[in-house]
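PTR2-domain-containing protein, pasting as requested.
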Amino acid sequence: MSEKHEVTADDSLRPVDAAISPAVNEKEAEANEKALSESPEGDEPTEEEVKTLRHVAENLPLAAWLVAGVELCERFTYYGMSGLFQNYINLPLDGSKGRGALGMGHQGATALSTFFQFWCYVTPIVGAVVADQYLGKYKTIVLFCIVYMVGLLVLVCTSIPTALENGAGLGGFIVAILIIGLGTGGIKSNVAPLIAEQYKRKKMAVTTTKKGERVVIDPALTIQRIYMIFYGCINIGSLSLLATPYMERDVGFWSAFLLCLCMFFVGTVVVIGGRKLYVVRPPQGSIITDAFKALWIMIVNRNMDAAKPTWQAANGGRRTNLPWDDHFVDELKRALVGCRVFCFYPIYWVVYGQFSSNFVTQAGQMEGHGVPNDLMQNFDPISILIFIPILEMGVYPLLRRMRINFRPITRISLGFVVASLAMMYAAIVQHLIYSAGPCYESPHCELSLVDGQYMGNNIHIAIQTPAYVFIGLSEIFASVSGLEYAYTKAPLSMKSFVQSMYLLTNAFGSAIGMALSPVAYDPAIMWMFTGLACASFATGFIFWGLYHHLNAQEDEMNALDLQNEGVQAVQAEHEQKQ
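Structure tokens follow.
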């Protein structure tokens, strides 16, 4: 990115202070908001140039990379820890390293692991309300980092062999996942919108490349790139599962959990150390309360425009003193479009949740050849890290050159279909396991016991790899596009809250997963995989049929933020003159 397009710490006028201190004076708050609404310089393209010139994305500012680094550390912790939960809960403590702890069996392990996922995606609502209404994103992230570390400390202490032998394991584990879930929820609802806020350009601009080509800098494409890189960092972090399964096996669960605690501490230091660089929008007071009040007015009047002050005035409404303007209602309607799109995501998250639960158990039913069964999960992030550069630097630019708009609704629909392929392949692998000796449809029977350890049926663990690859590819289309959609469709003052609504769909998916846990046994689980494949495939086509028309409205809906910031700038200039 050229110098004149960079966002620096000076450009932000230190809005972080506004988020931290509620006593900030009015003039400083106005200055912060004005700084946030500024867009880097550049000649605006004409309509003809928008249609004919190639659209490109900008590079990320330094502050965005810092936020991505924080998320990398948090995800390193989350996946490195939770990826071991299936074995930790499933297998009994037998005095040997890494062979288990709580001994609750396959179904108990799947149920508790799925509950943890559910809890982690309900709590973002708490983090969103705290951020949007009271503290701001930055201070909320710091607060919940501390909560997260407390939970990790409980997990480490209660997984020490002495604590497990004295019965502290189950109680400590439940307390730990409740605290950790609260911490991760508070962070997740804020870190995704915070990274996008580091990019300040709101208007398209014409520039010339080094090769002399005139192109249009498109903020929408940059936001898409930001979330691709953000998701890449998430998956670099999740490669912690390359290390923690071996630590689990060779040293003990406590050592893996301790590594996660240390890495999370590093991420917290980065958050606090870079506080002066971040561009942060201050909280907007009772914004979420106002949103629910506006929604109630819409419901009561059965009219989406009924919450507008102008509608109330024109129709003799009793609500003449509303604390918002018409534009706020337009933004809220746009947010509702996004939330309506999210309704189908629980089906996707049920499929996604299999890779850290039932896929781990499936891997344990095959010959490992020295590979821990929970190590196979790494093929998911590895595939994502391979496909993201291919798509971002090859496929997407090629589609833009061919004037093919690969809009979010299309990408999400494709994500559902690819996820169905993962489930279809998992069902095939399960069939192959049941077709192989020595235990056939009863893996881990006495015939597979060697030196006190169950070896699984005679089929190589590597056969499972394509299932993880399909899941990874589906995430790039469905999950990344969901993050992008949640940010671009949310009102400026409710970014964290709408992000939490998107994350809440993951909780619903986990709830469905918990409901399915009674059928997570041999041989019924093969038919569960088959059913999920059919459900995901059908959902992809239904989703496309219902929402593909929103692709044509994408630019119009995204322009609402620009209109609002223009209004705010005019108001600030008018007040300054007075």
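Note for the archive: The radius of gyration is 25 Å.
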